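In the design runs reported in the main text, the only information available to the sequence generator was the tokenized backbone. The following block is the verbatim input for one such run; it is reproduced so that readers can re-run the procedure and compare outputs position by position.
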């Protein structure tokens, strides 16, 4: 019997105080009162003696079990964020892959591993000398540093297919790079073939990863640098500089050729056109002279003396018209004659200066004037005859 149970001797507690006196709270009594309240909530009935105490204890255990069940159910609620996927395991075995959103799983029966499938990760190949130095097709050695960017494509294979997917990726990328470099020459890897080497390495690495079912997807491969070994780097730079000079000289020569050839072709075309124009001019002039000679011959046959005199006068006029000499024909032979020859020469020079560039119209007017003189002379000769 408890020390504070009714019916005990003296109704006193171990400290000698009566129940109606103030003292420490009775813990058993408080517990019984709580059991009664919970029993009332769940529809329990009051019972006397030990039966009432047993019923209250059973109801309290049921309530505690209900609370534990609610807490267990609430603890299974979780949310899969955007860009991730959940891998559900039931009793340690794979069950399913769930998409982003709110979900529930029975705790202690299932577990969920969240895998980020949108995060881009990277690994660098060639950070150590054993990885960086590779043998080419022409038995040269190159120093390569490569960066591989990847992300998770299959969460199930990423978690369970291989023990360490990232280490597998490094080994696969190094193996693929060595294979591509081993089938290429040193100049190709160091100069023009960098992008092709990166593309072939990416394709071959992805094939290896798919064959091992790593669940990884290679998004991009970048060759950060590809150089000759440090011991021969100076000699290689000299050779590379010589190749660049060769290309530069070839480009300069090509540019000079592109500048000279069009000019030469244009000059050749111009000379050909000038020659053709000169030929046409000479031919037309010869044809004109032939026609004129035939006409003069016809007139000469009609009047030989008149035609001869006309031809003589025209020739003298043409010859003396371009000289600065003055000829005087005096019958009495008077030599004391003053002529302002210097003034006449200056006047003639001034008239020639004004007509600096005779055009076709002046040439035509001169021809028409000469033709009119010839016609007047021919008419005069005919009249005299």
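Verbatim output:
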């Amino acid at each position: 019997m408890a020390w504070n149970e009714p019916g005990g001797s003296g109704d006193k507690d171990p400290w000698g105080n009566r129940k109606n006196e103030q003292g420490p709270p009775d813990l058993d009594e408080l517990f019984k009162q709580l059991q009664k309240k919970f029993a009332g909530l769940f529809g329990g009935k009051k019972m006397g003696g030990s039966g009432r105490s047993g019923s209250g204890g059973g109801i309290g255990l049921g309530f505690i079990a209900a609370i534990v069940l609610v807490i267990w159910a609430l603890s299974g609620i979780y949310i899969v964020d955007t860009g991730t996927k959940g891998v559900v395991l039931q009793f340690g075995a794979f069950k399913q892959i769930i998409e982003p959103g709110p979900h529930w799983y029975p705790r202690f029966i299932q577990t969920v591993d969240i895998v980020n499938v949108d995060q881009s990760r990277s690994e660098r190949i060639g950070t150590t000398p054993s990885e960086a130095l590779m043998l080419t097709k022409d038995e040269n050695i190159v120093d390569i540093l490569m960066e591989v960017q990847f992300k998770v494509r299959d969460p199930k294979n990423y978690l369970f297919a291989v023990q360490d997917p990232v280490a597998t990726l490094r080994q696969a990328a190094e193996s693929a790079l060595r294979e591509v470099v081993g089938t290429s020459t040193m100049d190709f890897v160091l100069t023009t073939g960098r992008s092709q080497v990166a593309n072939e390495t990416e394709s071959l690495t992805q094939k290896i990863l798919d064959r091992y079912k790593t669940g990884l997807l290679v998004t991009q491969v970048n060759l950060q640098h590809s150089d000759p070994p440090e011991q021969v780097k100076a000699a290689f730079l000299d050779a590379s500089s010589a190749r660049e000079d060769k290309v530069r000289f070839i480009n300069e020569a090509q540019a000079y050729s592109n500048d000279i050839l069009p000019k030469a072709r244009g000059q050749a075309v111009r000379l050909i056109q000038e020659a053709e124009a000169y030929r046409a001019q000479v031919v037309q002039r010869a044809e004109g002279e032939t026609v004129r000679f035939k006409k003069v011959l016809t007139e000469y046959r009609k009047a030989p003396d008149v035609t001869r005199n006309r031809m003589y006068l025209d020739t003298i006029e043409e010859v003396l018209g371009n000289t600065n000499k003055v000829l005087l024909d005096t019958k009495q032979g008077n030599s004391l004659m003053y002529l302002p020859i210097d003034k006449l020469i200056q006047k003639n020079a001034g008239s020639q200066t004004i007509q600096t560039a005779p055009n076709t119209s002046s040439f035509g007017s001169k021809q028409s004037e000469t033709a009119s003189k010839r016609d007047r002379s021919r008419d005069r000769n005919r009249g005299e005859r």
